[in-house]
Amino acid sequence: MTIEETEKEITEEFELFGNEWEGKYEHLIDLGRSLPLIDNKYKTDDKLIRGCQSKVWLHSEIQDGKIIFTGDSDAIITKGIVALMIRVLSNHTPDEIINAQLDFIDKVGLKEHLSPTRANGLVNMIKQMKMDSLAYKAKT
Amino acid sequence: MNSTIKDRVFDVVSVRESFPILSKKVNGKTLVYLDSGATAQKPQTVIDAVDNYYRNQNANIHRGVHTLSQEITVIYENARATIQNHLNAKYPHEIIFTSGTTESINLLAASFGKKFLQAGDEIIISAMEHHSNILPWQVVCEEKGAVLKVIPISEKGELLLDEYKKLLSSKTKMVAITHISNTLGTLNPVKQIVELAHEKGIPVLIDGAQAVPHQKVDVQVLDADFYCFSGHKLFGPTGVGILYGKEKWLNELPPYKVGGGTIKMVTFEKTVYADLPLKFEAGTPHIAGGIGLAAAIDYVNSIGLENIQEYEKELLHYATGKLSAISGLKIIGNAKEKASVISFVIEGIHPLDIGTILDKLGIAVRTGHHCTQPLMEFYCIPGTVRASFAFYNTKEEIDLLIAGIEKAIKMLK
């Protein structure tokens, strides 16, 4: 599935809840619970994303030219957001990740989490994922 | 409210009507604003005072010969007098306008440090200080080779006064302590703290940012050498604050910022600085802020701080009882003397998650470390949820908070 296709899939998932925030957040929380935990050896301070009120760990590695992200957070809603980002961006090439527009964030009604005052660090999360991709691209 | 007597002296419904923002909808719900500890909402009279200044009074103060400048100078100096009276300071020139508590403490630490601190000297603060009352002292201590000493607290969130007494010595040059903790709500026995310091001839700064919105402060009764607060937490504009200092101390201190307005005479060789308070007020001040702050003080006094204190005590008591009944919820800060600030954590749930769900319900609380990271370390928690109440809050809003927390727990657990 391309990044756009996953984004479309997620958008459709969230559309089921209409304008009702509760269902959306319950879904986000469920996604957080389903997130495969990051390998404990990567839950170190150097994997922490800065600027978050909650802790967010993000690890990336490259397999066959594609980046695999794993992550975790100590706050469950943030963890749901981590899960969404991983679902969209993991298992893609550095170029695909760098060029991803990520319009789905707005479409699913999570745009408020992109505000710089939001403490869950979605902005920094995206930045880190793109930075990692740039780093892998530079190596190849 | 239950008490009919209090209904007569304090009508919260009409109080709320004075604050336009309180009827605003947030996320489709009527705003429940429980973050007054971060910044308080503004009554119409403050908004009008600021608006009127820009519409009808705008001119620069102090040096203009023209009518507008002279008129606004009088109004601005009247604002200073209002603040002087409110704090019961001896002289108007003991009131220095700053941009807020943070700048007040930076001013004092830099200026006091420059003149009085030497290597090996000590500054005493407490474990419950806001970063704003830690960092300026830390910086000046590093510069001068002085040492920061910290009064420890009990699990309940009260200062250990015996430990404080032990810390006071001939090396101590300043005690800088918060009046009310922004995170725990603890009301510190500042009068006693000042007395103990004065026995050894040590000056005391009290950080009153969280105290002035909740109670009457009399700097002469406290005998504080310095007292500071922010306008915006006292229902006034942002960007304006106060440093009160006893005349004898302020005269001793060198200017912190220099520039226009702070001088008597300037040549390229030497400058003679102006008298108080202008020595500390370089540049064009926040004129609208000063006027707005005076309007806020007039407003608060029209309600009466004793009434406010009594009403908020009732809110605190009500909220504490309701919150304590929630399973898994732990209140952080259980001092005997508290202001209407409640921090709490819920077992197994991150404070940020609670805050996010409450926001969706239109309830504004604060989450995180509240600029008191050493305190979070003491309690071994990543942060808290903090609800801080002002006199415009109601028991009905506390009920909404409780229902919101219960809903959040259900969703998040």
Protein architecture, described:
The complex is a heterodimer of chains A (140) and B (413). Chain A has 140 residues and is mainly alpha-helical. Chain A has a single domain, classed as Sufe protein. Chain: A (Alpha-Beta Complex). Chain A is built from 6 helices and 2 strands, in the order ααββαααα. Chain A has helices at 3-15, 21-34, 76-89, 94-99, 104-107, 122-139; strands spanning 56-63, 66-73. A two-stranded antiparallel sheet of chain A has the order 1-2. In chain A, a hairpin with a 2-residue loop joins β1 (56-63) and β2 (66-73). The relative contact order of chain A is 0.18. The mean pLDDT of chain A is 88. Chain B is an alpha/beta fold. Chain B folds into 2 domains: 4-30 and 304-412, Aspartate Aminotransferase, domain 1 (Alpha-Beta Complex), CATH 3.90.1150; 47-301, Type I PLP-dependent aspartate aminotransferase-like (Major domain) (Aspartate Aminotransferase, domain 2), CATH 3.40.640.10. Chain B has helices at residues 4-9, 12-17, 44-57, 67-87, 101-116, 135-144, 161-167, 190-199, 219-222, 247-252, 287-303, 305-324, 351-360, 373-379, 395-412, and strands spanning 25-26, 29-30, 32-33, 95-98, 122-126, 147-151, 172-178, 204-207, 226-230, 241-245, 263-266, 271-273, 329-332, 341-346, 363-364, 366-368, 384-388. In chain B, strands 4-10-9-8-7-5-6 form a 7-stranded mixed beta sheet, with helices on both faces. Chain B has a 4-stranded antiparallel beta sheet with strand order 13-14-17-16, with helices on one face. In chain B, strands 1-2 form a two-stranded antiparallel sheet. The longest helix of chain B has 21 residues, at 67-87. The radius of gyration of chain B is 22 Å and the shape is globular. The chains are: A mainly alpha (140), B alpha/beta (413).
